[in-house]
Amino acid sequence: MTNHFINLVGVGAAQMPGTELVFLEIIKDFDLIIEIGTDNGGLALWLYLNKRADAAFYTYEKEPTHVKIPKNHEINSHIVYCDCLTEDTIDSISALIKSSGKTLFLCDGGAKIIEFGVFSKFLKYGDVIVLHDFADSPNETQNYADAKAKLLKDGLWDGCGFEVHEASYNSIEDDVISAGLVKYNYNKFLGVLWGCFIKL
Questions:
Q1: How many CB atoms lie within 10 A of CB 65?
Q2: Under 8 Å between Cβ of 93 and 148
Q3: Do residues 150 and 191 touch, judged by C-beta distance below 8 A?
Q4: Is the bond preceding residue 138 a cis peptide, omega within 30 degrees?
Q5: Angle at the Cα of 194 (from 95 to 15), degrees rounded to 5?
Q6: Is 118 helix (H, G, I), strand (E, B) or coil?
Q7: pTM of the entire structure?
Q8: What would the pLDDT profile of 71-125 be if each residue is shown by its tens digit?
Q9: Which of 14, 96, 99, 120 is the most exposed place for a label (fewest CB within 10 A)?
Q10: Alpha helix (H) residue ranges in the chain
Q11: Using CA atoms, how far apart are residues 114 and 164, in angstroms rounded to an integer?
Q12: In Å, what is the CA distance from 87 to each residue of 54, 62, 119?
């Protein structure tokens, strides 16, 4: 059966089916999880429910009307409504990263390439940063189309949405190098349209 996106506890997520399986392989490794771009909240809710019990979690959303998580759910106290690219918020997030153990940082807001460039420089050894709607370089358009075609062929997706990639390796390569990042579980994450990097 094909699916548009992940749906958890009645909350949609603009993610490819199987995304949760890829994140499940690494999520328990982290003391802090930060997501930029809550949107409907489906992925945020999944991350919150599947992280280690002692791991801290924050998700940032600029538009409160986008979030569809039930108002009585405990995750609501972990949603920060603001523009993540203001100086105060950048300072606040960088302090969280610096003062915590191992961090998983998700760039899935409206400016993924900028988010990656701004926040990757605050990562510590062993921290992981991922960004969504990502295609490998070179030949980004073809690589993105091939990843979508595989999901269609495997019956995991019905072709709805995700018409173009928003980020590519070429678009973040300078930040990858300057932040001392290397590809991490790269092909698995590419299969669900994410780029994944670790600070070493």
A1: 6
A2: no
A3: yes
A4: yes
A5: 100
A6: helix
A7: 0.88
A8: 999 999 999 999 999 999 999 999 999 999 999 999 999 999 999 999 999 999 9
A9: 99
A10: 19-24, 42-50, 87-99, 112-120, 140-153, 169-178, 186-190
A11: 18
A12: 29, 15, 12
**Residue 88: both structure tokens together:** 């105060």
The answer to whether residues 100 and 56 touch, using CB atoms and an 8 Å cutoff, is yes
56-62: Cβ within 8 A, 24+ apart: 56/31, 56/32, 56/96, 56/100, 57/32, 57/33, 58/32, 58/33, 58/34, 58/93, 58/96, 59/34, 59/35, 60/34, 60/35, 60/36, 60/84, 60/89, 60/93, 60/109, 61/37, 62/109, 62/110
CA separation for the pair 145, 51 (Å, rounded): 31
**Partners of 12 in the β-ladder:** 7
Q: Which two tokens stand for residue 37?
A: 């771009």
Instruction: Determine, yes or no, domain membership for 43.
Output: yes
Q: How far is 199 from 30, CA to CA, in rounded Å? A: 13
Rounded CA Rg of the chain = 16
Q: Give the count of domains, the chain.
A: 1
The residue range of the domain holding 159 is 6-190
Only one residue has tokens 């400016």, namely: 111
Distances, alpha carbon 49 to alpha carbons 14, 57, 73, 86, 144, in Å: 18, 10, 11, 29, 29
198 within a domain of the structure (yes/no): no
Q: What is the pLDDT of residues 39-59, one digit of tens each?
A: 999 999 999 999 999 999 999
The four Cα atoms 185, 120, 6, 56 give a dihedral, to 10 degrees, of 100
Asked whether 134 and 167 are in contact (CB, 8 A), the reply is: yes
